[in-house]
Amino acid sequence: MRTAIYPGSFDPITNGHLDVLQRAARLFDRVIIAVAQSEGKHPLFPLAERVAMVKAAVAHLPNVKTDSFNGLLVNYVASCKAHTVVRGLRAVSDFEFEFQLALMNRKLDENIETIFMMPKDTYTFLSSRIVKEIARFGGDVSLFVPAHVQTALQEKFRSNPVTGRPADKISG
Ligand code: ADP
């Protein structure tokens, strides 16, 4: 059974992520889409919400499983008894970081291979960050994310139009 891990923050999952995932699901017996805690990135959506959005978005893909992880990706991959990591490459701008990450992961565990998949050209400009920026200002993101993600973004920014987060406590 060939298993691939598709890791990321998925804050939130976009149609670009889904495009890469669908391509990977055709190549492997099983793909685990692994949502990273990514606390250091201060995600807009807490882990549980990101996982729930991913689960709903991949429900139609029978060989895709959703999971989450914290800590080193290589440890998570080994715990799944997998050897392959899938990452998406959109443009040259992704290359440097992804190249560094792939080689570092190989240094940490030489059994792990990273494969890169290019999305459909219409998704090469798409990122979770840009989708959040558009949604923050009330723009239409229906072409870029599944409907339930669009609703979640609208609700987030309705509660706080500036940050999408509950108001910070004022300390002191
Ligand atoms: P991370 O925080 O690990 O970068 P992301 O959720 O931003 O997580 O992205 C996860 C993976 O999906 C990365 O490999 C990223 O390059 C890829 N990715 C993100 N958006 C797209 C897209 N529109 N098309 C293809 N790949 C994408």
If you had to describe this structure to a student in words, what would you say it looks like?
The chain is of the alpha/beta class and about 170 residues long. The chain has a single domain (about 5-125), classed as 3-Layer(aba) Sandwich (Rossmann fold), CATH 3.40.50. About 40% of the residues lie in helices and about 15% in strands. It has a five-stranded parallel β-sheet, with helices on both faces. The mean pLDDT is about 95. The site of adenosine-5'-diphosphate (ADP) has 17 residues, from helix 1 and strand 4.
Task: Specify the overall morphology.
Answer: globular
User: What is the residue-averaged pLDDT?
Assistant: 93
Q: What is the CATH first-level class name? A: Alpha Beta
Q: Please indicate the count of domains.
A: 1
Query: Biggest β-sheet: count, sense, barrel?
Result: 5 strands, parallel
The second-level CATH architecture is 3-Layer(aba) Sandwich
Instruction: Trace the largest sheet across and list its strands.
Output: 3-2-1-4-5
Radius of gyration: 16 Å
Bound molecules: adenosine-5'-diphosphate
As a percent range, the share of helical residues equals 40-55%
Task: Classify the secondary structure makeup into a structural class.
Answer: alpha/beta
The helix/strand series, from N terminus to C terminus, equals EHEHEHEHEHH
Low-confidence stretches are none
CATH fold title? Rossmann fold
Number of helices: 6
Tell me the β content.
15-25%
CATH homologous superfamily descriptor: HUPs
